[in-house]
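Task: fold both queries, return tokens.
Query 1:
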Amino acid sequence: MANTTILYGYWLSSCTWRVRAAMNLKKMTFEERSIDIVREKAQLTEQFRAINPSQKVPALFVDGATIVESMAIIDYLDDTRPDPPLKPSTPLQRARMQEICEPLQNIGLKRYFETEDKYTVFTKHWTERGLQSLEELFKNSAGAYSVGDQMTKADLCLVPQVYNAVTRHKLDLGKYPILSKLYEKLLKEESFRKTHPMIVRGQKYTLPNL
């Protein structure tokens, strides 16, 4: 067990996908255990609380320790497995990367809405705003990737979130030419093709009793 890397996540979770893609880039061997956060609400069980007290996915058991929060996980992997690097080499480019990453964070607000429709209207509005902001940011940062010509944490955040925007809200990316071009290019990268939600969909894992 101590030598096994285990990703606790959900196939359609954008935060899980970014970690999955990071591990693929780092050529890591790992086992993914599906935590159904939609139908079964498995993240709210006491069994999962023992893994992640915040009861969210993903959580990663690696190097004998459990790390939670996708950004913290990716930073840890990059610090301990620096090839290939997921951060740009210059302070300005690292700042550009963070500018892109920040608008792409998920906020667990769904439970505070009275209906699914109200939540959908809210998320669609703010997703559109986020895409507009990214299009402007890319004018200062984009090259072959989101920040220059190196894949970074920004790309790992971008693809899952845009995928959700397109599939869930049917948003038209044609209004965002730089973003759209980047997204289509990134989807063809091995790290995203091999970790795509439709590849891991259907995995089942039952949490053991405490």
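Query 1 returned. Query 2:
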Amino acid sequence: MFCMCGLLSLPVQGILAVIVLLMTLVFWMLYFKDSPYARKHRSDDEKYFMDENARQVPFPSLEDEYSLDLSIIVPAYNEQDRIRPMLESCLHFLTDVGRKWTFEVIVVSDGSTDGTCDIVMEYMQQYGSDRIRLLKLYKNRGKGGAVCLGMQSARGRILLFADADGATKFQDIEKLETALHFLATNDIAESTKPVYAVVCGSRAHLETESKAQRSVFRTFLMMCFHMHVWLFGVRTIKDTQCGFKLFTRPAAKILFNNLHVDGWAFDVEMLYIAEKLKFKLAEVPVHWTEIEGSKIVPVWSWLEMGCDVLAIWLRYRTGSWKIHK
């Protein structure tokens, strides 16, 4: 009997040793691996864009005063097959004769190895570098990293990020802007105090229809992810992952200077910070169509996002990540 207990205790000791090792590793990652404040590295080449005369021009900074009405940030990784229709739709809407917005579209090539950059430069030549700019990242950072660096290079009074697939209609910008003005209670352009507000495009109203088109397993995983986000992340926004969000410049300055997560879950961290700082938040239904070619890998990407959401909650709760205002 003694020998049997001794033999049984060996696996238990091994399991305990693994648990202690994992706890030590987590503790080290939380407190010693990186700075509590977010820092996005940017090489010297990534601080410039190419204008229509093939000259390198430095990007402005989000810390500067705004000089345009609207900046649109488009993260793009190997999007040569989807970005042209998106840019056509976006620019057709923004250059409508009756629309008086001054705008810029910043496409952030997130280490693309296909023809994405060439297509963007075609549009830059056509519309000019004051309206179309390419931020070329030489290393893939992830969607969150690409959006952050694009936002930090923007000139707009209000700033939108939109996915390169064009799944959301750009006409919905007006709905988001209306909601943003409502949150601000007065015209943002005339406000003397900083307005910290975010409006999120939402596909929550399409959930019933999308469930009918997905398998039971994928629907279950999606519901689990939403519950996971609600428990450990964001409670005021139902659809945290819709790639169509509008920000006031003061809100963008705080949020995109504080993001640690570079992957798909960056939206959750961003909204987590916004809730923590009591920013004004709203969710607006938008038109949305699924476009083939998504970079999200079913199951694996959701698991990755789930781990990131848990890490966001844990790091902020333990104080290993802090918010710099």
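Both queries returned. Flag for query 2: DSSP finds ten helices and nine strands in the chain.
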